[in-house]
Amino acid sequence: MEFGARSDSGRVRGNNEDSFRLAPELGLFVLSDGMGGLQAGEVASKLAVDTIVAHCTQAAADPSLATFGKHIEGVSDTCNRLASAVRLANTEIYEHAKNQGNKATMGATVVVLCFVEDRVCIAHVGDSRAYLLRSGSFDQLTEDHSFVAEQVRRGMLTVEEASRSKMHNVLTRALGIDPQVDVDVTEELLMDGDVYVVCSDGLFRELTTAQITGVLEETDDPQRAASRLVDLANEAGGGDNITVIVLRNSPKSSRPFAKIGRWFKGPDDGKESE
Amino acid sequence: MSKLVLKFESSVLQEVAVGQKEVSVGRSPDNGIVIDNPAVSNYHARIFIEEGRLMLQDFGSLNGTFVNGQRVKMIMLKPGDSIAIGKHTLVVTDSVEVRARSLDYVEAKAAVPKINETVMLDTKDRREFLEKVAAVGESAQPAPGRLKIPTLVVRNGNTDRSEYALNDKLTVVGKSAMATVKLQGWFKPKAAAQINRKEDNTYYIGAADKTPSVNGEKITHPTKLASGDLIEVAGVELEFVVRD
Q1: A19 has which bridge partners?
Q2: Is B118–A13 a contact, with Cβ atoms under 8 angstroms apart?
Q3: Would A45 disulfide with which of A5, A32, A95, B92, CB 3.0-4.6 Å?
Q4: Nearest to A244 by CA among A196, A209, A208, A183
Q5: What is the pLDDT of residue B123?
Q6: How far from chain centre, in Å, is Cα B20?
Q7: What distance in Å separates residue A126's CA from the closest CA in chain B?
Q8: Cα(B9)–Cα(B37) distance, integer angstroms
Q9: A236 interface with B at CB cutoff 8 Å
Q10: Which residues of B touch A127 (CB under 8 A)?
């Protein structure tokens, strides 16, 4: 797995309320977009990523570590671990805000990706996103917890109407707002050549998916891709903080048995030649 | 980003971006740009954006503020303007962009408060909205209790069991430790194929290391499964069955 990341305050905001943390030793990649005045957003997003990495680090050392909140059926243990970490982050931010005497309500979105064995596990709350570029198709893996997205899902708005809505910035779910939070988890089979993009809304509000895929296809280097995406979002206006993590499951590094496979298949066969 | 570049003679001392917040200039340490020189007043001048224009205002300083050699009280700044305060110079850079962006911001603000700022639906609105959404959702989706969980029945090939309930969001067919349908045999792939359960409880089969066939035809993209579909992949045959 190769990866790169960049975060920028954009061209309008004076501060950067996004946070991210990469913990490749755990296969863990976390991004959070904070909200709330007077630095509260920065504090919230940092609390989110730190709490999640800490919980997952502890769990890696001690797999019997208790999970926080109810078990979600139909997904792997890793997904449940991520949900547990996100719920803890919610509590941390909620408590922190309460201790500030409710002066500043703070909140944060979060997207967590964890690569384990044959799959990628994803947990998220809010409107930060994870995308997957696979064999030329670029799909959003997370569903926004926003007012507009919720209305589209329930057929109350068409996609066309939604694109004209002025309520894009209104969230229905975020960390730190209520004592408890519903965490969405999903998982995907990890495949050779997969490219994952994790980003805050500062990226996808400025760029079309065609622009994003264009960048991903023009370079193999995830760090260059992340930087280029941030630059493009800034050129398009940079109306909000922009944070991007790009992860590439390059064919050569992913398979311990790739060489053996090559002996059987011949050197120029299959995906190795990509 | 638009900047004010503070210079003393030819050396650059500081670069300060001008955003929504005004930048104050003076000798007192709480200014945005601090010029520690007796010729400079404690609060000498400020640079700010008004109606999308970059403005400078002198606070009635003793020694004055000069823009392009002219003493000024209040003036609109342009890119390339040179502001002299004492022996220091502030150069305005990139200010065309400052104007364009800040104008957007002001207009956006006028149209919808906080357009660029993420906000949370407040508690009362959120509760009402989620209730409404739940009501719509109920008519559109079957209740969880009535959902039928499909089964993969092994018709041919070596697997660890003869059938598998598709409880999971992701079901992997292969040799991987996390595979649900475990293939047995030396040369079986770690992940031969995958079956994804969507939010609306439909199931799609997709390729992994192998491309599966459904009812005798190789799939070209993730394909929705219907009861009775016969899947062939990596030497096994699996029937997708939805039982009543």
Answers
A1: A32
A2: no
A3: A32
A4: A196
A5: 65
A6: 22
A7: 10
A8: 14
A9: no
A10: 118
